[in-house]
Amino acid sequence: MEQGFNRRRFLLSTAGIAGGLALPGAPLFAQSANKIRVGLMLPYTGTYASLGNAITNGFKLAVEQGGGKLGGRQIEYFTVDDESDAAKAPENANKLIKRDNVDVLIGTVHSGVALAMTRVARETKSLLIVPNAGADEITGPLCSPNIFRTSFSAWQPAYAMGQVMAEKKHKNVVTLSWKYSFGEQSVAGFKEAFERAGGKVVKEMYLPFPNVEFQPYLTEIAALKPDAVFVFFAGGGAVKFVKDYDAAGLKKTIPLYGSGFLTDGTLEAQGDSAEGILTTLHYADGLDIARDKAFRTAYAMAFKMQPDVYAVQGYDAAQLFAAGLAGVGGDVTKREGLVAAMEKATIDSPRGRFTLSKAHNPVQDIYLRKVEAKQNKVISVAAKALADPARGCRM
Amino acid sequence: MDFSTFLIQLLNSLQYGLLLFLVASGLTLIFGIMGIINLAHGSFYMMGAYMAFSLTSLSGNLLVAVIVGIALSALIGFLLEWGLFSRLYKRDHLDQVLLTYGLILIFEELRSLIVGDDVHGVPIPELLSASIQLSETLSYPVYRLFMSGVCILLAALMYWLIRYTRLGMMIRAGSSNREMVQALGINIDLIYRIVFGLGVTLAAFAGMLAAPVSSVYPGMGNQVLIICFVVVVIGGVGSVWGALVAALLIGLTDTFGKVIAPDYAGLAVYVLMAAVLLWRPEGIFRRI
């Protein structure tokens, strides 16, 4: 069975590549085959390549589990590597929308690229499902009936962490992040919850992106002696920060908290320095959810590796689209019915069931996780069914 | 900021500055003596860091990894000079920029193929893994102090090599007049090959030394490249002594910029560069 599965997956992915390479004349021919045209605009090279692949795998797994179909229709993939390059984003998105005539656009990881895609989708009224990028704007000021997100907003995990740290009776907290919009939105979300609960952010510190010379800030933190520190970092910066924080001896005296990405996909490199750190995110290791266990087994069988939060988000993008198609009997031309069905859907996600907010962002549980033996073990639900406030969204 | 915090920040800037010097010294040698604009310098730094990672996981010992890594990067430097750069001395700077930019892409892609795109950590050697308690909350990792010590030692070695050895004399002569040196019967091609190998090795060594504290990740070379050029431009092209002074100045500006005016921290170093260039368009020091 496993064999057959792999062969089908191979056929699917080659179809995707062939689709991506198709000449402008090709769509006419393909359209007659009457398949649903899915455009995947994700990073397949560069720093975020592994994230793009995980999302693609997750999406294709969901399609596979539906017997190669979504909402009763065959799927045809069109793939573009967005290279996480915001400058090329409008062109790439237009390529999929105008040349390949896709019925739905799935993308992407990088917030800058996703914002550009959002603008293109608004102009062309194309259906867009964002499977990762957390920029608040996508389901805030830029929200639109045809734009959906299956991941999270920067605000969500940070806000939940604000509540957690207030409950832990921390009074004075220092925040540190890169000075770019995602970091600033995370800190803003944290501060909102933490100060509402009576805490105080004594100092907000930012360093230029992607600078990783943390030593001056660590010295500042040691001099300020706050009760705790909240940070937003990801990738290589997260690894270095967690190690530096530990090496400076601060971890023993001033507990470190972060938005989930501080310890996601980085634990191997962070080693013992990360042990015991608390983070918040919409996914965790060791969730007691049957759906998650089934998903993890199926994913591991199909792709010979463990799924991560990105794979879950890709999987849910396919589930959300399938729910929409089911509502209109697979007829993508009935856009209003499709959108209405997607809005009403309850997604049975590996992260736990979620619905969508008015602005089309998941209303989801945010988990409090603790790093134990190189895993982000779930401790509790930090915020139940947390909805992004969708500030600036008029819809 | 109380006095002890001030002293610790001073230590931070010294330590950052010295590491910058180590990376940038190779660039200033190649740039100043051979007249080559080497955009791939950051890639050599990255290559060193990845060597430290791969070789440490193979051999289990950072020291072994560094020794093998130095030999490998010197070899790579020689081969690159022999195969590519030696053909470019008579061409203009644009060709060099194109070649070295191409090298950045090639190195980045090779890294992705060989090691992958994940972030990796390199363990600090047992012997140097302790910390020294500086204030009641802050301690300082011994490895960082060790790094600074190595940088000072290397600076002294380079000064001695260029000032007081026969090879150094030939290098200095070659940088001011290539043809004349050749006419005197010195094999200038060999000298250039040695200088280039030395520059590559210095960058790679800086990467290896920094790997345990900086961790190893894609694109890490591009981050140091720009700041290295700033060091070289402030210090004066080709001046090793100038690179040292400039690196320390940048360390100070960057560290205290982050503390005093955090909103403009990203700007501080470039303001310093603009100010130095207005005051001395050729950099603080000229020539070796």
Automatic annotation (TrEMBL), chain A:
Keyword terms, alphabetized: Signal
InterPro entries: BCAA_transport, Leu-bd, Peripla_BP_I, TAT_signal
Sections of the chain in a coiled coil: none
Pfam families: Peripla_BP_6
Domain (Leucine-binding protein): residue spans on this chain: 35-374
SUPFAM superfamilies hit by this protein: Periplasmic binding protein-like I
Top-level taxonomic group: Bacteria
Family: Belongs to the leucine-binding protein family.
Full protein name: ABC transporter substrate-binding protein
Taxonomic lineage of the native organism: Bacteria, Pseudomonadati, Pseudomonadota, Betaproteobacteria, Rhodocyclales
From TrEMBL, chain B:
UniProtKB keywords: Amino-acid transport, Cell membrane, Membrane, Transmembrane, Transmembrane helix, Transport
Cellular compartment(s): Cell membrane
Source domain of life: Bacteria
Record InterPro entries: ABC_transp_permease, BCAA_transport_permease
Signal sequence residues: none
Main location: membrane
Regions crossing the membrane: 16-40, 61-85, 142-162, 190-212, 224-252, 264-281
Name this polypeptide is given: Branched-chain amino acid ABC transporter permease
